[in-house]
Specification:
about 425 residues; alpha/beta; Urease, subunit C, domain 1; TIM Barrel; 8-stranded mixed sheet; 6-stranded parallel sheet; 11 helices; about 25% helix; binds zinc ion
Length: about 425
């Protein structure tokens, strides 16, 4: 056996060396934020970090976020993509775990910019336990990254959650778990008229000082904020938030077209769950919705579960926004992946039955996962796979400016990939180097 122990506590030892000495692999007690597998070497009485085993993914095609590669060979080491090549040009490397997905297309893992919770937990809990439960579940559904999305709550509670989330987001990625790579602040600067289930007593008028308190509590990790354009001060707050690196998405709004355009002029770049919690389309006053659908540069989210928006309207949205600006999100809440019953969204109770989450007679988030959103979208619109994949990968990455962490498959990036069949059905998922499905 060849084991070399460099100075310092961490020994890096090749996996093959351990195989020969009956190593006991330890399961980390608290699953959050381990980056390596720890193993005990009985003969030496030490704990060591094992280099992650080399994994090779093969399939019929790879869509890397830009173009197609046939018969791809993606080599993963230490949770990151080490190389990408075609099998036509080389043999499989030795000493590797090979995962083949015959007939499938490999693509970037999904990036959800609007998700509140899953598996019985809400991001507002801001605990490692909550993010761990969510991360494991989301990874099994092809999501590699997400923006932890808050709901409107008492200001103090929101500040507490943001400060907890900031600490958790600073931790390294965990193999096999989707990672929160930023925060989406949904509220408190929303319209009373289109608040949905957001509690009215905690909605606030746009205010730069309040925003700064939220931003600072989150240690600068707010990447996206939903705001209603018609509120007084919305354009000023938009310009200010953008100066701090936050993208503005317009939503929960009864805005006129003129009010919407004023906030677009201030720099807003997206729309939150198009059609939902928005002034309906009117042919004389196009309002926020008519503006969102016709402003070509604007990104626009869609909850494509067949419940929040009828398939015909998904088609209309797709025709309007196209493959460069459409973004699929879940808006999933804590009941996602759980049986029917009563759950929490932020601080209020939501009843879940037959795939619908309701609070006081209004839809309250979804039970959707992004793998299901992809197949629904392809079925509703007939869009081809390479275009459809953009909506959960490249587009959210470009909109949020987080393309260095999510949305494509490239050497040096975290190894977050999905394998999907022709209909977009998920057949494989690898998150931070770990195959989870
Ligand atoms: Zn939401």
């Amino acid at each position: 056996m060849r084991v070399s122990i460099p100075s310092g506590a961490k020994a890096r030892v090749h996996f093959a060396a351990f195989a020969a000495v009956r190593v006991k692999t330890l399961t980390y007690q608290s699953c959050p934020f381990k980056t390596s597998t720890y193993a005990k070497v009985p003969e030496l009485g030490i704990f060591a970090i094992i280099n992650t085993m080399r994994t090779v993914l093969t399939a019929d095609r790879l869509w890397d976020g830009h173009g197609l590669l046939h018969r791809p060979m993606v080599v993963i080491e230490d949770g990151c993509i080490a190389s990408i090549s075609s099998r036509a040009n080389g043999e499989l490397p030795g000493e590797a775990r090979v995962l083949d997905f015959p007939g499938a297309t490999l693509g970037p893992a999904f990036f959800d910019v609007h998700i509140h919770g899953a598996k019985g937990h809400d991001v507002m809990e801001a605990t490692a336990e909550a993010l761990c439960a969510m991360g494991g579940f989301l990874a099994q559904h092809g999501t590699g990254s997400f923006l932890a999305t808050t709901v409107t709550a008492p200001l103090d509670a929101t500040l507490r959650s943001l400060s907890g989330l900031a600490k958790l987001l600073a931790q390294p990625a965990v193999a096999g778990q989707a990672r929160p790579i930023g925060i989406h602040l949904e509220g408190p600067f929303l319209s009373h008229a289109k608040r949905g289930v957001q509690p009215p007593e905690h909605l606030l008028a746009p205010n730069i000082a309040t925003f700064d308190r939220l931003f600072d509590a989150a240690e600068g990790r707010i990447r996206l904020m939903t705001l209603a354009p018609e509120l007084p001060g919305a354009a000023e707050l938009t310009a200010h938030a953008i100066s701090r690196g936050v993208r503005i998405s317009m939503g929960h709004s009864d805005a006129t077209a003129a009010e919407t355009r004023a906030v677009i002029a201030a720099g807003a770049i997206s729309a939150t769950h198009t059609f939902n919690a928005m002034r309906p389309l009117d042919h004389r006053e196009p309002g926020i919705l008519g503006t969102v659908l016709t402003e070509d540069e604007l990104y626009a989210e869609m909850i494509c579960d067949g419940i929040h928006t009828a398939p015909e309207m998904v088609k209309l949205w797709w025709r309007a926004k196209g493959p460069e600006r459409a973004i699929l999100v879940t808006d999933a809440m804590s009941a996602t992946g759980m049986p029917d019953g009563e759950y929490q969204l932020g601080g209020f109770a939501v009843q879940v039955a037959n795939g619908r989450a309701m609070a006081r007679g209004v839809l309250a988030g979804s039970m959707l996962t992004l793998d299901q959103a992809l197949t629904n979208f392809m079925e509703f619109t007939g869009a081809p796979l390479e275009l459809a994949l953009r909506l959960l990968t490249v587009n959210p990455a470009l909109m949020t400016g987080l393309g260095d962490q999510a949305g494509s498959v490239a050497v040096g990036m975290p190894a977050n990939l999905v394998a999907v069949d022709e209909a977009g059905k998920l057949v494989g998922s690898v998150v931070n180097g770990e195959p989870v499905r």
